Amino acid sequence: MLQFKKNVLYIEQVKLSDIAKKYGTSTYVYSKNQVINNFENYKKTLCSKDGLICFACKTNSNGGILNLLVKLGAGADTTSGGEIYRCLKAGFNPSKIVYAGVGKTAEEIEYALKSKIFMFNVESFEELDAIDKIASKIKVKAKIAFRINPYVDPDTHSYIVTGKKGTKFGIPYENAVKAYLIAKQKKNIVITGIHSHIGSQILDIGPFKLAAQKIKKVIDAVEKNGIKIEYINCGGGLGIEYEKGQKVLSPKRLMSEIFPIFDKDKKFIFEPGRSIIANAGHLLTKVIYRKVSGGKSFLIVNAGMNDLIRPTLYEAYHEIVPVKKTSAKKVKTDVVGPICESSDFMGKDRMLPVVEQGDFLLVTCAGAYGSAMSSEYNSRPLLAEVLVNGNKSTLIRKRASYSDLLLNEI
Ligand SMILES: *Cc1c(COP(=O)(O)O)cnc(C)c1O
Prior knowledge:
Oligomer: single chain
Number of domains: 2
CATH architecture of the largest domain: Alpha-Beta Barrel
Strand content: 25-35%
Radius of gyration: 22 Å
Structural class: alpha/beta
Helix content: 25-40%
CATH superfamily of the largest domain: Alanine racemase
Number of strands: 21
Distance between the termini: 45 Å
CATH topology of the largest domain: TIM Barrel
Bound molecules: pyridoxal-5'-phosphate
């Protein structure tokens, strides 16, 4: 939904320079129709089966985005009490909310139970005990799936691998059947499914298939013991095209490889995050200074690692484009933020046309793990967020002010 018309960059039918004028910079800008397309790609492929597409809302938990997904029929994959709260406020039916995470607290478990969420993705024996106890205390039953760690290593950045032996996630593969046998004995636990999520930004089908085959083995062993598993939750993890030419998997390809592995009567849950929102959102920022130092060219922009931490945290690549195409010659440039850390950069060694102070740049595909991971580090107020639909733009989060920085101080 990004395109140049007469050398001017548009998101849908709105000029990015107009967004900058209207809302200031830096600003996160989202394309509503890109979100719709991305979600529909999952939904129409799943439609042959019973199940749910649960948006992994840790990737972007803005209420405007969440409410859009509610209207499209999404469920939500949550990882904290706060996320459950946001999802309920955004209008998700609690019966479509699933809840994962290795460190659910007693308060969070009780809140989730009282909110009547669909199911817990349980990551340890200790957590199973806690859920059973709390459910008994408030006299409800808790639906659960075990998150199984299938010991599959997707070839992705080490910080976003979750399904490999020795990570903190899930029930170790060799204990999977035992977990179900123990759960069967618990009075307030209702076994509903099985879950695995092996990592993020995965570009090959191999690891997904291997994980599914290993999960199938667990299901067979569990069902031999008279325990029925209704839902298979395949997690999220589909990669997106951050760099031009990167080959990505479609939801259709993913599901067409996974469905035949399991019996026909199974219901499925998918938990896409990045592949729904990453390429729908971009960070619009302004060049504060051009600087040459030590033989290098720098563009110092008004967006820092507090606003978008992915380059710093994962050495992630985001394409950076000037919102006005020029014929100016290209020079090798580091695009850096204003924060007092050498790790504060948006992109290094990029061939960019010489742009001037005050010009705008777009850091693309920043819709996932962008705003959601932002902070006020260096006392920088959180950014505005704008949703574009056709030729209209709507503010979905207003820019924070200096006084917001002191909000909870006493
Ligand atoms: C993060 C996460 C997801 C989403 O992963 P993406 O790579 O963004 O699709 C899904 N499920 C669980 C349990 C997660 O932790």
